[in-house]
Amino acid sequence: MDSHNVQRYVDKNGHARNEGDIQVNPGGPYPVDYGAIIPRKSECHNLLVPVCVSSSHIAFGSIRMEPVFMILGQSAATAASLCLDEEIAVQGLPYKKYSERLLADKQVLAIDSPGTFVPLSSLKGIVIDDTVAKLEGPWKKSGEAAGVHQGYLHDDGRRDGSCRAVFAATLAPGSYDIQVAYPPHSNRATNVAVTVTTPDETHKFTLNQRDAPNRGVFHNVGTLKLSGSISLSISNHDADGHVIADAVRFVKK
Known about the structure:
Elements: E1 2-3, E2 7-10, E3 16-19, E4 22-23, H1 57-63, H2 66-86, H3 95-104, E5 116-118, E6 126-129, E7 134-136, E8 140-141, E9 146-148, E10 153-154, E11 160-181, E12 192-197, E13 202-207, E14 218-237, E15 244-245, E16 247-252
Parallel strand pairs: 5-9
Antiparallel strand pairs: 1-4, 2-3, 6-16, 7-11, 8-10, 10-15, 11-14, 11-16, 12-13, 12-14
């Protein structure tokens, strides 16, 4: 969502600061209730307001976008037409009849999930999320509602080796599939440097983050016999696109 600065002020060090600037992804699509575009019946019974909706200042920061206004305009016009045909107040419009008309006109009224985050509790194996990884460099949190747990990090296409994320785990002796999670995209790097460090040796892999993951949201980069303290690092050194750091998983075979 997008909410402009409430005010600009000077701090105690004499620096100009912005207050109240909010740039936060709401986490996915959300519904706007029909009640938000009509008044109380005691106030007025023939008014529909698709733009000046009843909402908080924060909510209006994302409602006030053209596609939302287009949907609200369609919804208001449909409601007005049905109420005129039935000669009823806008507050008395039966939702069943209203929703059937909107659905017939290809409007989406419900979604299966408000977001696409994958919960940690749904994943098997030993999972280390980016929220507990050791981060080096100017990683940025993605604004997309995607990825494991609370989303993912990206290097903003720096390609300069300044960003490194280290995922650490202690593993019982065994053979493990080593997997890295990321949402694929055409702007991702095809040569992401992945390094697995054990107490005795170092293994290097290259990951193409344009390819769709081959293990759900994870991509299997290799299989190794591991034991004890293990770390996996993801770096943007010499990357040819954006590098993603989301989650790492070790699955015992």
